Amino acid sequence: MSVDTRALDQAGPPGRRARLRVSTVFWRRPWLKALSLLTPPVAAFAIVYVGALAVLLISSFWGVDAFTGKLVRHWTLDNFRQIFSFSDPTYLRIAGRTIGIAAAVTITDALLAFPLGYFMARVASPRVRGALFVGVVLPLWSSYLVRIYAWQTILSGGGVLNWSLHGIGLPSAHLAYTNWAMWIVFSYIWLPFMVYPVYASLERIPESYVEASSDLGARGWRTLRSVTLPLALPGVIAGSIFTFSLTLGDYITPLLVGGTGSSFIGNVVYENIGINANVPFAAALASIPVMVMAVYLVVARRLGAFDAL
Amino acid sequence: MRRIRRIHLLAAAVLVAALSVPTIAISRSDGSSMLTKIGKGEGSLNLIEWPYYSDKSFATAFVKQTGCVIHRKDAGTSNEMVALMRQGGGGGGGQYDLVSASGDASLRLVYGGDIQPVNVKLIPSWNSFLPAFKSPEHNTVKGVHYGVSVQWGPNTLIYNTAKVTPAPKGWNDIYSAKYKGKLTVPNNPIQIADAALYLQQTKPGLGIKDPYELTKDQLAAVVSLLKQQKPLLKRYWNYATDEITSFKNGDVWMGAGWPYQTLQLQAAKAPVKEIVPLPTTGWADTWMLAKQAPHPNCAYLWMKYVTTPAVEAKQALVFGETPVNPKACPYMNKLQKSSCAQYHLNEPASYYSKIKFWKTPVAQCGWKSGNDCMDYNAWQRAWTQVTG
Amino acid sequence: MTTSRARIALGIWTALVFFFLWAPLVLIGIYAFNKSNVQSWPLPGWTTHWFRVAWSDPDVRSSLWLSFKVGLLATGTALVLGSMAAFAIHRFRFFGRESISFLLILPIALPGIITGMALNSFYVFAGLGFSIWTIVIGHATFCVVVVYNNVIARLRRTSPSLYEASMDLGADGWQTFRFVTWPVLSTALVAGGLLAFALSFDEVIVTTFTAGAQSTLPIFILDNLRQGQQLPVVNVVALAVILLTIVPVVIAQRLTRESGILRTE
């Protein structure tokens, strides 16, 4: 698309003419615009984040000196041998527990959030919807740590839950400091992250689709299964990225509400960084969640989640 | 096509940057030799500390006296402290001056070259310290002082007087199924030493001479004891508040803890008491001077100030620990009645010699020749094996 | 069309989920008045003492202020970088387009401890002293994706012919931005910015690794949770933060309301 230079000369004051010229350059060479828009964020990310990540993962192939604890840049697979060993399956057990609870939390949050999102998107009036939205987002602003600590008070032996159960004549629930407690707390903490994408994707489904479906003879459940769910699935998957990854990498909740068999990968990573100063081993351990999330993200992209974030 | 080449260049640049890390040497200035005289304060002091170790109730006067403005970085675990000291090339990275390291981390800092020796002659209160803290193994290596002891605490057995009868006399109940599911111990690899100390008494055949210096077989025996203990526990506690809440809520009836937890629980009207079954382990904190400390004069002024009796007493009661300077006893009693005895500051010397203070496990065995004792790495692996 | 029975069932479910969401927050509010510094049930007694302590404690103020500053800076950075990236990805097709959106999601998809460790070693390697800026960079890495998602979702719903029409009518780049792009995007930026600020304000894991001798609010809270001499102060601060953020969140929700009305086709 060429620009009529006469029109440019008549465009107005010099400042505006200059701006028009710059705009033309960008219009004619779209890749230049793309590059100038993209370079700052990508450069920042590539250098700072990806570079740092690469260095960390490379260091998992190194070791530490036993006496001084300093890095020894000698290539070895020892760290991985220790982690993936079957004679001492400690780390595999911890990894399995972490992934298992992350999956359980994700499914729980999806089940909790879907009806809520459906109500907010399709049933509630705009005023109620607004209030519900605020009610879901506001807990994110209260401190994550304080909320977990509140759960300790709820779930403990003499806590609120058991007090209520006794009040209606039920026996105590021995949930304190167990993996059940962790499952409940994690599902609680990440729920708003799941509600938002699910609500957004449900809200985007045009009413006409649902009407068309019932015109074709489908009852409520059939419409839900064949029309609503498939269209809302990207939103659920998008929310699941948050709940899964945030649970996978957490180490604070196991510290506060976990019991004797509740260590997560993050805990072991954290324990190995300090006095142990074994960053290569910690990096090797950290590669497990990286690999799991890489697979998860590839699958999520296939299912269209990236469009629904 | 130009577009593809640009992206490829970018990727290549990242990879080159990443791989060039090994070849860039981080230069460090040589650690300064010890001060012979405390000079004028530099106006600033950066601390890595346990919370309240520079509490305003006693730090404000110091700042006014010396002009050294305190910037504090609170750490919650020894792991954090070591990690912070190793930043920026080690030695505190030129950012931190002092670190209040506990015995489980102190030797790691010393052998890692992050700490410089301290001239105890510049700290007058050092002469009044309890003998056990003048040159303890966890901060003095081959006669060289790598810091100044500041406070300590014994590891005690806390129990619920209403639920635990008869009152326990030793550590036995922590390893037996009598109160299954109602016990707690700290989540710290150094806890291996507690189990080792117990085995030293109950299974002398293992030949354990020092609970922090264990051979491979001795460590394996301790690990099997800890694995037996795991199903008896309700949880491993990480922070003091965890233990306090667990006791108060009735989730736990007995556990290893510190006098701080007992006093907090008693203040909250929980029916708990503690005993100190000797021998037991204990923790002791040392103010250590970073090798790259930017404000050494302020650091020495702080160490001098914080070891004086009045300040020791204040810090002890704010945090919940015991001073190393016995002259603090009357000051403690003035601030809080009978606190000196509650915190075990007025005991005879033989008492302190029965407390095995935390010491970072290293490969060199002190009680026999050879370097085949299990180091902290092995302890951490063993602890993860037990708790994971 | 949802039947009335389905509506009632959904309504009950919503109420239950909301109870689940808010009960612990109510508990936090209750324990802000706790007489003892041990958080046990039932409450041993009531007092407003901790409110006074929190108000006069300089650490509370400085950590709140630092968190606020970090949040603003990280959100600002994220708004700029995120929108730029969203524009580029949306408008142009080029090699590596998919991988860039993948790249941007990494900080939020990978565990915080990995981001923290990676950034920590990067700062050490680059010789950067730890300061408020290292914290901001750390927070910006995961805030960018939040803004990016909101902006690109909005861009996907706007027709590109708007820009062409604007150019046809003689507007230069800046005028197009001012009169066409900005009104379309503003609510997406507000929603993205709000979520980014919330994430940054409450972040503790990455901050532990990227902060120097500074305490943000979550770090202050963690410190107090460990020793517990002033535990109810933490509840007071959490309660205050919830109450203070009601107004901005409601305003933001009002502003972004229009973005939701697309069902009426």
Oligomer: heterotrimer
Tally of separate helices of chain C? 11
Mean pLDDT of chain B: 87
Largest sheet of chain B: 8 strands, mixed
Helix content of chain B: 25-40%
| CATH fold call of the largest domain in chain B | D-Maltodextrin-Binding Protein, domain 2
Number of helices of chain B: 14
Domain module count of chain B: 2
Mean pLDDT of chain C: 83
**Secondary structure: number of strands of chain C:** 0
Q: Roughly how much helix do the residues of chain C carry, as a percent range?
A: over 70%
Q: What is the CATH-assigned architecture of the largest domain in chain B?
A: 3-Layer(aba) Sandwich
CATH level 1 name of the largest domain in chain B: Alpha Beta
Structure description:
The complex is a heterotrimer of chains A (309), B (388) and C (265). Chain A has 309 residues and is mainly α. Chain A folds into 2 domains: 55 residues, no CATH class; 228 residues, MetI-like (MetI-like fold, Orthogonal Bundle). Chain A is built from 15 helices and 2 strands. Chain A has a two-stranded antiparallel sheet. Chain A is flat, with a radius of gyration of 26 Å. Chain A starts with a helix and ends with a helix. Chain B is an alpha/beta fold and 388 residues long. Chain B has 2 domains: 175 residues, Periplasmic binding protein-like II (D-Maltodextrin-Binding Protein, domain 2, 3-Layer(aba) Sandwich); 129 residues, Periplasmic binding protein-like II (D-Maltodextrin-Binding Protein, domain 2, 3-Layer(aba) Sandwich), CATH 3.40.190.10. Helix content of chain B is 36%, strand content 18%. In chain B, strands 1, 2, 3, 4, 7, 13, 14 and 15 form an 8-stranded mixed β-sheet that branches. Chain B has a 5-stranded mixed β-sheet with strand order 10-9-11-8-12, with helices on one face. A two-stranded antiparallel ribbon of chain B has the order 5-6. In chain B, a hairpin with a 2-residue loop joins strand 5 and strand 6. The longest helix of chain B has 18 residues. About 5% of the residues of chain B have low confidence. Chain C has 265 residues and is mostly helical. Chain C is 77% helix and 0% strand. In chain C, 49% of the residues are buried. The C terminus of chain C is likely disordered. Chains in contact: A-B, A-C, B-C. The interface between A and B is large, with 49 and 54 residues.
